[in-house]
Amino acid sequence: MNQEAVFSSKKRPFLQPVVGVTSFIFMSMNAFFWTLLVHLVSPLLLLKQSKYEVFAEQSFDWLYNGWVASNEWWFHRVLDVEWELDENMKSDFQHWHLIIANHRSWVDVFVIFAQLRGRRPLPRVFMKQALIWLPLVGTATYIMGFPFMKRYTKTQIEKNPSLAGKDLATTKRSCNRLLKRPNSIMSFVEGTRFSDIKHQQQESPYTCLLKPKAGGVGFILQTMPQTIKQITDITVLYEQSNITGWDLLCGRIGRVKVMVREVALPNTLLASDYRASDKDREHFFAWFNLYWQDKDMRMNHQLNALLDDSKVAGKAFTKGKTSAE
């Protein structure tokens, strides 16, 4: 596939700025095209008839997949970018899934979509209510059933006690469509992109990860009780120490590897009366921190193995080249 790429900026570094701008224009137009189609299909939801609703939901899934697939086509066939996906991940469209991943760059999103496409329902993401005002994209995600949440601060609740519990009630209502059929929900629990500076500022006890903000996960489990039975844990590993979205747009991406495993939720978390965001908050956080520590140790080992493989491959290539000369 690499040999069929339109061009590779890896071989022509002077073209990288042009490639980056061209990629940005393509991805912007691509997002506009698919979100526009979502808006054109949306009136079917107003008919309040099951056959039209089912058709609309199927259409949204098809359009979502179309957006991801067209991005993948650009990455592979134009930019000569390849991901090393975890081919052992089993396909499952019969259950609800909670996807949790580490977060280094917004490149992660496209890598994870590539891993999930054809194997799991493409994920819905819990979005802040303010994001609905993003042109076309915000309303398209709302139309497609992405759950929007509005959280109230302690100060707001103290000033107006009637707000207590309203955030959970609002989120539950926005999850109604998610509960009608199996879906995936994705969360970056670090809350922000990893960097060495943030890692030092946090004084993170983890080697490869920032401190988790697991409140959102507890919120999801409490909002969708007994629906999610396990966590689909995804680790995205980069050969590059620093990676940005601009690197992807320019096609200057090194080796990227994805590792997937399923982590079963303990029975205590699945009990009907379990409240991960309320009375059982401390218990939930204790369990989640153990899970996060295990993920960090695994990721550290996997990353070291990836870098060692890359070094060996690099030395072998250099040696072969010298011998040929």
Structural class: alpha/beta
Work out the number of β strands: 7
Count up the helices: 11
Query: Roughly how much helix do the residues carry, as a percent range?
Result: 40-55%
Give the biggest beta sheet.
5 strands, mixed
Order of helices and strands: HHEHEEHEHHEHHEHEHH
| Percentage beta strand | 5-15%
The overall number of domains is: 2
Dominant shape:
globular
CA-atom Rg in angstroms: 22 Å
Low-confidence stretches: 316-325
* Average pLDDT over all residues: 85
Distance between the termini: 28 Å
**Can you list the strand order of the major beta sheet?**
2-5-1-6-7
Task: Report on this structure.
The protein has 325 residues and is an alpha/beta fold. The chain folds into 2 domains: 10-80; 83-123 and 183-310, no CATH class. Helix content is 48%, strand content 10%. It contains 11 helices and 7 strands. The protein has helices at residues 16-41, 50-78, 107-116, 137-143, 154-159, 166-174, 196-202, 215-223, 245-250, 267-270, 281-324; strands at residues 97-101, 124-125, 127-128, 148-149, 184-187, 230-238, 256-264. The strands form 2 sheets. The protein has a 5-stranded mixed sheet with strand order 2-5-1-6-7. The protein has a two-stranded parallel ribbon with strand order 3-4. Helix 4 links the parallel strand 3 (127-128) and strand 4. The chain is globular. It starts with 15 loop residues before the first helix and ends with a helix. The model is unreliable at 316-325 (pLDDT under 50).
